[in-house]
Every structure is written in structure tokens, then in C-alpha cells.
Specification:
nine-stranded mixed sheet; binds pyridoxal-5'-phosphate; 12 helices; eight-stranded parallel barrel; alpha/beta
Amino acid sequence: MQKTPYYLIDKAALRANLDKITRLRERSGAKCLLALKCFATWAVFDFMRESMDGTTSSSLYEVQLGREKFGGETHAYSVAWADDDMPGVIAAADKVIFNSISQLERFGAQVSEAGIPCGLRVNPGISHSGFELADPARPFSRLGEADPDRVAAVLDRISGVMFHNNCENASLEVFERLLTQIEQRFGHLLSHLAWVSLGGGIHFTGADYPLDAFADRLREFSERYGVQVYLEPGEAAITGAATLETSVLDIVENGRRVAIVDSSTEAHMLDLLIYRLNARRVGDGGPHDYIVAGKTCLAGDIFGEFGFAEPLKVGDRISFADAAGYTMVKKNWFNGIAMPAIVVKQLDGQLEVVRTFSYADYVASLS
Ligand SMILES: *Cc1c(COP(=O)(O)O)cnc(C)c1O
């Protein structure tokens, strides 16, 4: 039995998302690329490849990982490329998407001469996001070209555009409203292009999401402009597919009962701190309340307050949901605490340990 802490990826839960992605691709004609910045645990890429067309990226290393471990179509996007990124990007990418016209001007010819199509990120100036921190259309955003006239002037150098302006958008109605506004503002440009990516942030794998209506809207968009539509799901592809498994190391009392686990928000579930969220605990509640906290010396390293059916004792297991997206990719060595192993629950229920980390990995992470 693997000792805690570990991230546990459940292939059956992942399969449920992938089946929806397959249905969406079939009905809409859209291609779906996994956004590696959200989830890059390549142990399950063989499994995901059956239901997705490839990957999209935010850096040279992600482009390389996508090519090497996932395959299929490899889109290369970055907020800003450096000169020495280009050879590696050109060797691995099927498309290179620039964040600005100045980057297109600097690197576009080099990419086109290598026979790789170029794209441009366009910022439509409207978005759906619950957090300003993650809102690509926030004031003074650097994420994409905002002026339709400036985009029109470079249409001969690009074969497509990418809009990414949704974040955890669970409403088809809101998505449609935003897409219609994009069409009003940029529609005259789109029919000159071969492809349009509508980015990620659309929670179409959610339980109540009207998947078929979403697919039909994408097909209609694709036919109206004669473009191949791409989606870049990160969170939607892996939502609900992993937990963080921890054990209680100590229970202290200082006005409230606090259970300390062998993990940490800051080191192993960083987004809880960044977005000031409570973890979601897997399991039934109960009358015995505890603050559940991490073992780093950060005073506010707290997963949340939870009720338990029985009083907690040292060694009890506590598992936290939503440990796939933006979680494993952000784990770090803060406080030098043991990094969670990665375990995959196969479809037959068998647990397979695919990675463990040791003191040697900690040492190697610095010098
Ligand atoms: C973050 C990001 C995605 C993935 O977003 P999710 O919310 O995880 O679906 C896709 N495309 C781009 C350009 C991104 O920046």
C-alpha cells in the first residue's frame, strides 16, 4: 500500500469526461486539445489520447511534452516566445499561436518557412470569470490582440485565431452570448481563416451541461465561417478525476480542534491559497468538527473545516477532491515536505503507483 500523501487518479471518473468529449467531437466536428498547463500527468495520456486530438501549451517544455507523451496535434502557444525557444517549438509543433502581432512579426516568417501554420491570439475584451486574477479580459490585459483592424492587417500571415475568454463557465447561455458578441465584432475576419480555437474554460463535461446544444452551436459556428473549430479543455477534461489522499498526523486544540495532515495546501493544492478557497473533502459529514490543516509552518495552511462521523485519530485518512487540474502541475517542495506520489486507479480497480518522489528529487530541485 502506497503511503500518503499521494494524488490518486481514477480512470473510471476520467473516462466519464472523455466519453462526453468524444460525443462532443462527433456531434460538433470540433477538435479537442488538452491544455497541458492544467494537467500534464502523462501516465494517463495513452488513455486520454483515444478521446482527444492532441495538446495545447503555454511554453516550450509543454510543447515538447505534448509532442513526446501525447502526440496527435500539438499546438504551441506562449504569452511570449524567446529567440531560443524557436528551434524546439518548430521541431515539435503543428501550429504556432502568437500572443501579439509583434511576436508574429518577429517569428512568423521563420515558422512559416518551416511549413508550420501560424495563428494569433485575439482578446475579445469580454469574458466569463469568477476571479479577476484569472480573467483574460481584465483591464490592460496582455493576453491577445484586441483591435479587429490590427488583426485584419495580418490576415495574410495567419491561418487561424484563438479566443480564450472563459474560466469555469458552466452556463451555455453565457457562452452563447459571448460567442455572439465575438461574431459581431470579429465575424468579418473569420471567413478568411481555416480554423478558430475557442480556448478552454467551458465546463461542458458537467453533470447538467446541455452537451448536444453546445455541440450544435459549435457546428453552426464552424459552418457559418467555414472554419475548423478547436476547443482547449483543461479542467473540463479532468474534473472530478483525482483526489489528494492524506493521513492525520496530529490533533491539537487551541479553542478549536485542529487535525494536521501529512500534506499542505501551499505545497500540494496551491490554488486553494491563491483563490482563497476551501478544499472539498470526499466522504460523509458528521457532528465532530475539525479544522483540517497542512503540516507546513505557514499559519494559514488550512484545507478547511469539516464535520466527521467519528472523532478523528492519528492515522485516519482524509481525502480531498479536485486534485487533478492546476494541482499536480503546481506541486512544490515548500518546507521540504514529502511530495505526494502519483497513483492511478485502473478501470479494474487496481491501484498502480506510477511515480514516487524522494529526498534525492528534493535535492535535485535546487543547488
Ligand atoms: C488555461 C487555458 C486553457 C485551459 O483552460 P481550462 O479552464 O483549464 O479549461 C485553454 N487555453 C488557453 C489559452 C489557456 O490559457
